[in-house]
Structure prediction request, 95 residues.
Amino acid sequence: MDRRTIFGGSPITVIVRLVLLSIVVGVVLSALGITPRNFLYHFEVMLRRIYDLGLNAFDGVLQYLLLGAMVVVPVWLLARLFGIVSRRDDGRPGD
Prediction:
């Protein structure tokens, strides 16, 4: 793969286009009252809210998991123990 394929054209041309486009977008955002500090602050708040949503969902799932495990794990353990005991009573070797 050559540089033209990676960049989508001559690297110098692509860099010049990106610089000009960044200036135009910067002017538009500035006219809307959006500053880099303002943008980063709101981006951080958005990420924090997404993180909190994810943890709240995980917390609910974790509660269901623990509640179910309180029943399932002892039943599974008893089934395994009685299965091993009944296999030994049959004269067959255990697991």
In short: Helices lie at 3-7, 11-31, 36-89. The radius of gyration is 31 Å. The chain has two domains: 1-34, 35-95. The first helix runs from residue 3 to 7.
